[in-house]
Amino acid sequence: MKKKSIRIIQLAIIALLFIAAFLQAEEFQQKNQDACIWKIESDSNTVYIAGSIHFLKETDYPLDQRFDQCFQDAENVVFELHYDSTQTPAFQQYTLMKAFYPEGGTFKGSVSDSTYNLVKDKLLELGMPIEKLNAFQPWFIAVTMLSLNIQKLGFDPQLGVDQHFFAMAKEAQKNIIGLETAEYQLDLLSTLGGDDQEAFVIQTLDQFDEMESGFQDLVDAWKKGDLEKLNELLNKGFEEYPALMQSLLIDRNYNWLDEVIGYTKDNEDYLVIVGAGHLAGDEGLIELLEAQGYSVDRF
After folding, report:
1. What DSSP string runs through 43-57?
2. Where are the domains of the chain?
3. Of 70, 152, 229, 270, which residue is 20 to 30 A from 137 by alpha carbon distance?
């Protein structure tokens, strides 16, 4: 049965949350240009909220100095998850359990010959023999191809805003907080494609030619802190798929809202770093906080 599916460029930003010496570069911010950072100030503390892009290029560094300013100010740094939790043997075993076919199934045996050959050729182009992935389910192979392709285009997950500041927070021995568990995020990831995972794989392949320009548009909007454009690029494609939008975006925003509100009542400062798409839109974190009566200002 034919299923509609979300444009891969938009969906990839959610999916690739889990895949985890800067070159001197010309600063990309003009003096008065906005950065993708907001703040809530109270008598007791400041909570900074920064939007992250999870893959960047070396030429995107150094970041706008305001990122470093709020990092230095904050005693606590909050991420979508504590990235060290993805490196444990228990989580690696959980990943295999979720991504492997049960009872000896294979990717080749579950898709048509034409789809298998298309994926085989694309993976070979990306430097990955399909034999290494044949035991994995289609959603995992699709996400792997996305990650490999984005890295081929020069975008690096280790240069993502979240990974950059996670490493800095560990080195500075700041208190690191994860909003979610790695297992919860993997459970969300495993729902990609729904009941028609072969169609999801095919559309992944169809979008590869557009990925470089689409991803660069996203980075450009992020650099300007342009929530309207970010909402268009990241979130609008979900509107025809309300159930997926609810689980991947809206529910998580509301869950995080309670946490962020809690941080405003502390005596220490916080820097919250989440995917930029979670800040945009009517039910993004910025508007949700304002609806609760908080004054959320550009930093």
Report:
1. SS-EEEEEEE-S-B-
2. 34-298
3. 152
Residues forming a β-bridge with 298: 38
Name the one residue in this structure whose structure tokens are 């959603």: 139
Per-residue model confidence (pLDDT) at position 215: 87
| β-bridge mates for residue 38, sequence order | 49, 298
In the numeric block, the tokens 């990831």 are attached to 189
pLDDT tens digit sequence for 47-81: 999 999 999 999 999 999 999 999 999 999 999 99
Answer whether the bond into residue 62 is a cis peptide, omega within 30°: yes
DSSP category for residue 63: P
Q: Give dist(CA 271, CA 269) in Å, integer.
A: 7
Q: Report whether 289 contacts 260 (CB < 8 A).
A: yes
Q: What span, in angstroms and rounded, lies between the C-alpha atoms of 110 and 33?
A: 50
Token pair 């898709």 in the structure block, residue: 111
Cα Rg of the chain, angstroms: 19
Q: What is the pLDDT of residue 237?
A: 67
CA 208, CA 151: separation in Å to the nearest integer? 12
Owner of token pair 């907001």: 38
What are the distances in angstroms from CA 189 to CA 13, 99, 115, 148, 182? 11, 10, 21, 17, 10
C-alpha 137/C-alpha 106 separation (Å) is 7
DSSP code for 100: B
3-state helix, strand, coil in the chain (%, to 5): 55, 10, 30
Packing angle between helix 8-15 and helix 208-223, nearest 10 degrees?
60
Task: Choose among 218, 184, 181, 206: nearest CA to 36.
Answer: 218
